[in-house]
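The instructor's notes for this session suggest beginning with a concrete chain rather than abstract definitions. Hand out the sequence below and ask the class to guess, before any prediction is shown, which regions might be ordered.
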Amino acid sequence: MPGVTSFTFGTHTIDVARSTVSFTYHVTFKYGLAKTFTDRLYFKDVPKEAWATVPPDILETTLQSLLLMLGINYWCTFRTKNIRIESFKPLDCVGVAEEMILAMHYVVERGEYVGEPAIKIFKEHFPASYDFTAIERQLLENDQ
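After discussion, reveal the predicted structure:
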């Protein structure tokens, strides 16, 4: 969409008393205009006591994943390469963003997951002409 300068996957909040979870997303346009979207999930018939039975690390990881999954619909409407994640670092197990880019590149090179939406998006934003060797060099230098 023309005029979009950044897209931010915002935060998630739990309202235990109402058994709802809210997710926010922010789009910034040229000239400083901005729009915030909120998605709210309602967990009908879930008593507030039930939230305490879910291990905190599992709940947090699940909500982080939901934030990304639900927000991709907004990003598809307001596409930009300037993507931010406000409330957490995704894929902590992978490391820095460059490591994820390189991992995806290796997956594409091996022909894995051909036709999958994530691969299509990756190829769109990181075409074969992208300098993946520069990322490899940078990561190797940082390891030393």
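Then share the key points. Residues 58 and 64 are 10 Å apart (CA to CA). The helical segments are 48-51, 56-77, 97-109, 117-125, 132-143.
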